[in-house]
Amino acid sequence: MSDTLADSRPVVLTGDRPTGPLHLGHFCGSLRSRVTLQHGHDTFVLIADAQALTDNADDPGRITGHVIDLALDYLAVGIDPSLTTICVPSALPALCELTQLFLNLVTVARLERNPTIKDEIQARGFGRDIPAGFLCYPVAQAADIAAFRATLVPVGADQAPMIEQTNAIVRRLNRQVGHALLPEARALIPASGRLPGVDGRAKMSKSQGNALALSATEDEIRAAVRRTDTDPDHLRVGDPGRVEGVVFTYLDAFDPDRDTVAEMKAHYRRGGLGDTVVKGRLEPVLLDLLAPIRASRAAWAHRLDDVRDILRDGTRHARGVTQATLDTVKEALGLYRLAP
Known about the structure:
Blueprint: E1 11-16, H1 24-37, E2 42-47, H2 49-52, H3 60-64, H4 67-77, E3 84-87, H5 93-102, H6 108-113, H7 115-124, H8 132-135, H9 137-147, E4 152-154, H10 160-177, E5 186-188, H11 218-227, H12 246-254, H13 258-270, H14 275-301, H15 304-333
Parallel strand pairs: 1-2, 2-3, 4-5
């Protein structure tokens, strides 16, 4: 790879916080699209360790202990290091400096209105004791996106406000310097939408304890399917049922046989189809989906030195890309630079 931004191909940036194993929600939300987009795009994937500290500063080991695990998940689903740069932001100093510059282009009130941040603050019970780093997380994310000059960011629908925040900062910077210095980014939101957890109560989340990990064993997959619901009011097989439950949502997301799923949904709606039959359809679909991912992950886990080399090489390449952007921004702002 060349450490230059002079590439005509679109740039894609994604990433995840290394706080635990990736799960089906991640796969449905953006991992599938990342694997596809790496063909024909300049693709960067961040193992967002520094940003994960914004609400884990009291337990940094939780973050550092999952960096390799996250890399294994990426490689297992088909992210190809010859096509995608996998990198670690804590080793990219330009991101911190660009974040500092961007903090001058946004107000506290604007950050507090960010709906993604508001939801997360409520979920974590911060009240007014919000870590400053957490409140400024959208600015750090904006710096990440801008530093790689990304124009396409695959995210879940709940992350769309973060992309809007990024573009607001980029527009203000561009106005200030008088030309389109940095590009705006577009959120790529999957058509399937947010994947519910196996309990059906909220989105699939590690913190909610309702996630099915991509590395789940066959027994764990079967247990998760048993936990899922179809229609809790569907008490008798002959009764009409609603298909908005977890089982049919998962079938819509992962069953490649759309016609059969459509027929099952119609049958369930008119009555005469039992929940056990529907779950019996879902179980092999998930087993077939996750078996090759689990096997690939196990194979990479026996090559940890290679995985570390992938992270070192990717981070080295990303360091050149992000530093070039930072230098461009500082020059445009007229900041004083000492000769080397």
